[in-house]
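Phosphotransferase
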Amino acid sequence: MEHILGSEWEVTPAGGATGDAYFARFQDRKLFLKRNSSPFLAVLSAEGIVPKLVWTKRMENGDVITAQHWLDGRELKPQDMNSDRVTELLSKIHHSKELLDMLKRLGKESLLPQDVLLDIRANVDLDLQKEPVVEQGILYLEREVDFVQPEEYVVCHCDVNHNNWLLGENEQLYLIDWDGAMIADPAIDLGLLLYWYIDPAEWKGWLEKYGIALTDSLQKRMKWYVVSQSILFVQWHRTKQELPEMNYWLNYLKVLLENES
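Predicted structure tokens:
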């Protein structure tokens, strides 16, 4: 990365799953660099959803490097997730025609519940599928799939973990790491956020601020996606041989399936 910016810049890896992200610093200037970000990033920047995009450069080998403002903010903590800022930003994302049009232009297909089920069947290890709680979860997904068809399709982030919410020094909230964005049922994002961070007694009020009612259909769809995501988390941590985390999600899945609400 130094040859792009100049030798005076100090460039360090930013970590992450892909290993293609970097921090760059020169005097009081700081940038976040990423290799081969989606063109979607430009629209997210224009909408104020991610830190401002400074420039984009295409390399001779075809790689595209993007540079964003590197903020000195902080990630949200779990207890921060019930703030009105989070509700408002997620609602803005889900209701944005500009974001939806861009993902469609980039060739994204709408994600159906049937697609999620096929993904689990194809990518979860066969012996893991026979684990009693995982088997029970898959049976639940198969039984309910016809009853969780989306009422609308929106841009979903699909990983609304608190670590992906960044509060800048200017107190502006951003949602980062859009590599997994999909056109899908908003219940994907809503389910994960509400189940993980919000007391069920507060769901109704939270959703009213977001802009919709807590209906039986929404509750059913949210639970369906949380069950499916939990199974995929079990597989993810199993692949990485992270047994404590895998066991956490197995237990979480068990509790989910025991709760009939």
